Amino acid sequence: MKNIALIFGCLLLTVVTVTAMYPNPANADTAVQIDQEVRLALENLYATSPKARELSEKAKGILVFPSIVKAGLIVGGQYDEGELIKDGKVSGYYNTVQVSYGLQIGVQVHGYALFFMTDEALEYLDKSNGWEIGVGPSIVVIDTGAATSTTTTTGKSEIYAFFFNQKGFMGALGLQGTKISKIER
């Protein structure tokens, strides 16, 4: 009984922490809100990562999730809504959902952008009925160290991922799966 009370208390603390860190709901209500958040997120990413800006000039499309909320205590999850940009224009709206189970605790808000460098990778996103990261085109995660040595001529990946605006703490060790699906807005 004490374990159940402890788990319930931790889950309640997690919900309160998420609400305090991110007072707006995780999913945006309108396309206008998503557009504004994505534009701001890309501006911030380009200001901190010249390599992201460089890749954006060659990318066939950029899928941006500006404020993903991730929380977990044994069982965890994350959610956000974003948009795909092709030729500087919104091409569609998507959500990202992740469920995880394992040794994990914490709450985090972050964003990420996926730079699709080939038509084939972009077509896979459009044709798949919900794309699971890790299945399909290969992805290279660009961190600060890798960004200094990766160029559009040396990099040969189909998709590059940049994480940005990380806030909070999330310690996790477990099985995860992220799914990206097209939505209507």
Structure description:
This protein has 185 residues and is an alpha+beta fold. The protein is built from 5 helices and 5 strands; from the N terminus they run H-H-H-E-E-H-E-E-H-E. It has helices spanning 2-21, 31-48, 50-58, 119-127, 144-147; strands at residues 61-86, 89-116, 131-132, 139-142, 159-183. Strands 1, 2, 3, 4 and 5 form a 5-stranded mixed beta sheet that branches. Helix 2 crosses helix 3 (50-58). It is globular, with a radius of gyration of 17 Å. The termini are far apart. Mean pLDDT is 76; it is low at 16-28 and 144-155.
Tag the structure with descriptive keywords.
185 residues; alpha+beta; five-stranded mixed beta sheet; 5 helices; 5 strands; 32% helix; globular
Instruction: Give the ordered list of helices and strands.
Output: HHHEEHEEHE
Q: What's the shape?
A: globular
Mean pLDDT: 76
Total helix count? 5
The total of beta strands comes to 5
Could you give the topology of this structure?
Elements: H1 2-21, H2 31-48, H3 50-58, E1 61-86, E2 89-116, H4 119-127, E3 131-132, E4 139-142, H5 144-147, E5 159-183
Parallel strand pairs: 4-5
Antiparallel strand pairs: 1-2, 2-5, 3-5
Helix pairs in contact: 2-3
Give a summary of the structure in a few sentences.
The chain has five helices and five strands, in the order H-H-H-E-E-H-E-E-H-E. With 185 residues, the protein is α+β, with helices and mostly antiparallel strands.
